[in-house]
Amino acid sequence: MFNLLKSSGIFKTIKFLVIALFFIVIFLAFLRVKLWDYDFWWHIATGKYIVSTGSLPGKDPFSYTSALEENKNQFPERERFILKQYWLSQIIFYLIYEYTGPKGIIFLRAIILITTLLLVFWRLQKWQTSYPISFIFIFTLFSLLLNSTGERPVLFTIFFSSLIFFILEGFKNKKDKRIFLLAPVMLLWANMHGGFILGAAIIMIFMLGEGVKIILKKTAYTKHEIILFYSATIVALGFSFINPTGWYALVITFSSKYKPFIQGIQEYASPYYLYKEQISPVNYWYLFMAVSFLFVLIVRNKKIDLTHILLLSGLLIMSFSAIRFIIYYALIASMVIGKESDLMLKDLLRRRFSDRVYKKILEVLTIAALISAVLYMGGIHKFDRLRFDIARDYSIPKGAVDFIEENRLSGNMFNDYGYGGYIAWRLYPWQKTFIDSRGLNITSMTEYQWIMEAVDYSDFSGSVEASLASIPLWERFLDHYNINFMLLSLSDIYADVHTAIFKLTESDKWVPVYCDPISIVFLRNSKQNEDIIEKYKLSEEMVYNILIYQSANSAINNKVNPRALMSLGKTFYEMGRLNDALKAYKYALNRMPENSTIQEKINEIEAEMKDKKSGLEEKKKTDK
After folding, report:
1. Residue 486's domain spans which residues?
2. I want to staple 186 with a disulfide (CB 3.0 to 4.6 A). Which of 64, 240, 605, 616 is the partner?
3. Residue 205: HSE in the Cβ half-sphere, 13 Å Cα cutoff
């Protein structure tokens, strides 16, 4: 049968259908993902600023706190880097969004990602990697891209990383002048995203690895080819310096003085920490990639290219330190490990089977890949989900910002860190933000945390007037900045409900006037706001009910993380529903039995319930 297929060309047609169908399904899957990334909005807001003013921003135009002399930036060089580094990608994003809306950006994201996957597949085919093995590693890389990539300039870093590797590997095989494409690629990359430093690192690792092989005479380079290789790579490194901030991305990446800016940001957390703290479930796609490299390293050892070992080892270590680097490791690993795995498989099968049987096995595996792609398309993908919308239901506070705009809320705003970019896009220049996810000013970031955690440091009371000493620190900041309204997310990225929400809901100074499943707006209880308060005031019970809904929904969606259940317990406790609070904390303890904080809260509630019961019994006796 297989000879008939092959002789008639049917097998080649089937193989083509496997590839075409698989990549079509992947492209459609990328299109299904809504526009969700918090950072996207400050990027297009900056793009709009650049286009409208004809210049790169010298100072932060979107935040009123950063303009105050008291908040003078302690790290102006980092502010300059973030304001200027992404200018070209910001203009591209802005113009596409301005003329096409979310649909254009979603298509751009899908095109960049599918092109990256096609480039990886092309590299595997140039190494003559069998299609079934290519299928496995492409699908693994796709799964990692689908779950971790937003609409940011980092998309270009993902593509350019694979392109730089592709060009360098191409030179190793053909030794031609296409290696001089490195220079314009690096020039373009350096003006789109600070991740161009990764491209420079890949180039330098190739320079080192190939240099060592040349010295040890483990590779066949002519003198002309050596000059060509090092000339092209040095020129490319020089071109990467031509951008508004030079190589300052390197300083920011490796200098310890900038670490306070990334503390508490999930993408900078170690995957081990996230798994250990049960913030997110184990990423088995990443685990497969990591274990595969270690396995290949042991089995293939001296047969693996030295440059590949250096590159993958460095990227793997980076991915252990922060989840944001996982995708870069996976990009290179899917190519290198795919090639090495195929060589191992071919070696194993050819020792056990004849070439004729070996080819038939590959044909069967190829047809199996086609069936898998069809099943995936029919069982997972739903065409009616291609809605090309923003993620207003889980990350974008469209409803809350609509409310602010429609009611023209005046005065200074205090806003959620993640929402700042969207607010800047929607409301600038008539409303400026307190903070956004650029995290430009360490003073504003610190004060933001104190407010959100409703910090009441008595140690600070000695430095203020006696009339203010009794006011909690977080309230003093709200008064100091003359905050008139607040737009907050109901919980953070770890599913913890902000302490400030409970304090504000129960306060006489603030009134909830808008709430949906992801965000809430509080308005200062003052005479100037009385008309809006009278019209939109929400009850405490309604706010708590939405918090219950949000926490319960988070607990259902993430069956590992106990924090949503802890937030649910905290909400019930604030409502005085001790039995429900106890149940929620006990469910949380089931997810993380060794957590002492949860156990202490259970003990506290049980003691309170016991005291309450004893008090009721005493009251009954007294009444009798």
Report:
1. 398-614
2. 240
3. 21
